[in-house]
Amino acid sequence: MKKLINKPEDVVAEELQGIAQAHPDLVRVSMDGPFYIVRADAPVQGKVGVISGGGSGHEPMHGGFVGVGMLDAACPGAVFTSPTPDQMLEATKAVNGGAGVLHIVKNYTGDVLNFEMAADLARAEGITVEAVVIDDDVAVKDSLYTAGRRGVGATVLAEKITGAAAEQRRPLAEVAEICRQVNANGRSMGMALTSCTVPHAGKPTFELGENEMEIGIGIHGEPGRTRMPLKTAAEITELLATPILDDLPFKSGDEVLAFVNGMGGTPLIELYVVYNELAKICKGRGIKIARNLIGPYITSLEMAGCSITLLKLNDEFTRLWDAPVKTAGLRWGL
Amino acid sequence: MTISRDAVVDWIKAFADVIAVNKDYLTELDAAIGDADHGANMHRGFQAVLTKLPTVADKDIGTLFKTVGMTLVSTVGGAAGPLYGTFFIQLGSATTGKLELTMADWQAALEAGVNGVVMRGKANPGDKTMVDALIPALGAFKAASASNAALPAALRDAAQAAEQGMLATTPWVARKGRASYLGERSAGHQDPGATSSHLLLKAAADTWADNSGNVG
Ligand SMILES: Nc1ncnc2c1ncn2[C@@H]1O[C@H](COP(=O)(O)OP(=O)(O)OP(=O)(O)O)[C@@H](O)[C@H]1O
Ligand SMILES: [Mg+2]
User: Fold this and answer.
1) Which residues make beta-bridge pairs with A65?
2) Cβ B23 vs Cβ B43: under 8 Å
3) A186-314: what fold?
């Protein structure tokens, strides 16, 4: 294992200390008790608090999305392991400005169970909590025989759009509904060129030959649904985009936000090659890419590979997407 | 024959040691069909439990179990945190105020614990989860006590049933948890959670059945 770390067990705590030192204008990092990252000005009175959380190793998600116009707090777990209910409870209390708190939960058993316990605890303390579970990964089929689709790329878009709605002081029910609608209209699929190494595991989660790739991966270094010989960017983009387009389905005349995400180890030059292919495919189907996001935003440590997310836009989503945001990971208009 | 409070503490400590020894093994199992963290998760949780134990060593068994459960909930994370946390919290609710456990007490506690895991995780038998070790273990323990077996024999039966349940998960396709994302590719691998559950019940049998010094 070759990593820029001190000790595997200190990675998350030291990363959080780094974030605290780097962005005191944006966030506070609470490390005395359960770990969480919170907006510097939290709680914002009268505003719905928007929280997310999950295992570490997906940076900049979620901690890098805490700030004005996006998340009020993020709860980082150990690498690829969901955080614990006490973190979520403390974060919920810290962002409660009297208008209730929304939990944005990626659909993984660990995240769902821990957030459920946290919501129960917060409600017992008199805080109104709603939760929206994000499950946009079309690589997972047949929900009856699985834990359901994973929450992947649409999470980033949901956090941005939902955060903008909360910033406009919309009530909790509306903010939650917007989040649900983003999830309902977003679809993703990912692929890996390499595996990745969880610091405390010390070796790659799976082995991938020089000329192999995994299609249908999630964001935890887990193997995907199929392994196949490496193909060109055009073929790979087709393999990812087709199931996404067919699933919603996205139709001719639709306007979309196209998000080409790097898994952590893939350079932007390759992501733009993929974006170019995606733009051709969308054009061929009469779908207009009205907004885009390209870069590593929901990563899987140093894994090489990418995911594609398409979100069907409406005027409200577009307005909320364009609204100002000021976080370490996304920043415009402020 | 009963299980003393000290024996309960010994079981928790023994399991923490077993987890420490099997940490890498559990993580390897999880690497094959999950995300390579089950061993690390359990180890982190039970190390925290070890530091908490002295603070409740003079309390009743119910308080002891609840403290173990709450500590797991707040330190393990993942799916295993709420699931094992709930297991121990339910053991605690079933043993409130008790300073020793009869065979019937342990059966009631185990039943409450297993039901707690099923309610929280909503897994069915055959989904390839820890439930596939826990449910057969509970069944075997009940069957043994129904046929008037002594406590040590019933504990052994439960551990053996858990082992068989664990081994049975290998050919199955997972339908719950992270492993279910793999579809058919999850077949051929033993479930990590069923493995840790077997180790938990084996530790109970090893501690309580073989170490007669603890069982009065
Ligand atoms: N719904 C469920 N019910 C019962 N047991 C489950 C369920 N889902 C998963 N498990 C068990 O949990 C084990 C995995 O635990 P682990 O500590 O690795 O959590 P995880 O799934 O990796 O969590 P996270 O997704 O947050 O990383 C599986 O091997 C399985 O036995
Ligand atoms: Mg795991």
Assistant:
1) none
2) yes
3) Hypothetical Protein Tm841; Chain: A;domain 3 (3.30.1180)
- 105-144 in chain B: CB under 8 A from chain A: 120-121
**A11-185 CATH fold:** Rossmann fold (3.40.50)
- Cβ within 8 Å of residue B185, ≥6 positions away: A223, A225, B33
Domains delineated in chain B? 2-208 (1.25.40.340)
Residue B216 has pLDDT above 50, yes or no: no
Closest atom of ligand 1 to CA, residue A82: 26
The residue among A97, A98, A78, A76 whose CA lies nearest residue A87 is A76
Cβ distance of A109 and B40 shorter than 8 Å: no
CB A151 within 8 A of CB A136: yes
Identify how many contiguous H helices and E strands chain A contains and give both numbers.
8, 15
**Omega into A296 within 30° of 0, i.e. cis?**
no
From the number of C-beta atoms within 10 Å of its C-beta (0-12, 13-18, 19+), residue A7 rates as: exposed
- What average pLDDT does range B169-181 have in this prediction? 93
Q: Residue B73: name the closest of A110, A167, A97 by CA.
A: A110
CA separation, residue B61 to residues A263, A266, B55, B178 (Å) = 47, 53, 13, 34
Q: Is A243 in the pocket of ligand 1 (CB under 6 A)?
A: no
**What would the mean pLDDT of A121-149 be, rounded to a whole number?**
89
The contacts of residue A7 (CB under 8 Å, 6+ apart) are: none
β-bridge pairing A49-56 and A73-79: parallel
Buried b (16+ CB within 10 A) or exposed e, A219-254: bbbbbbbebeeeeebeebbebbbebbbebbebeeeb
Query: Cα–Cα distance between A114 and A82 in angstroms, integer?
Result: 7
pLDDT single digits (tens) B33-59: 988 889 999 999 999 999 999 999 899
User: Does residue A96 carry a pLDDT above 60?
Assistant: yes
Instruction: Report the length, in residues, of chain B.
Output: 216
Peptide bond into B198 cis (omega under 30): no
pLDDT at B213: 44
Whole-angstrom Cα distance, residue B89 to residue B74?
Answer: 12
On chain B, the residues whose CB falls within 8 A of the CB of A192 are none
Interface ipTM: 0.82
Supply A255's token pair.
């306007």
How far apart CA A149 and CA A151 sit, in angstroms, is 7
- Give the Cα separation of B210 and A148 in Å (integer): 43
Q: Is A58 a catalytic residue?
A: yes
Q: Quick check: A34 and A87 in contact, CB under 8 A? A: yes
Query: Hey, what are A300's tokens?
Result: 């899987």
Domain range summary for chain A, segments of one domain joined by +:
11-185, 186-314
CA-based torsion, A36, A40, A42, A47: positive or negative:
negative
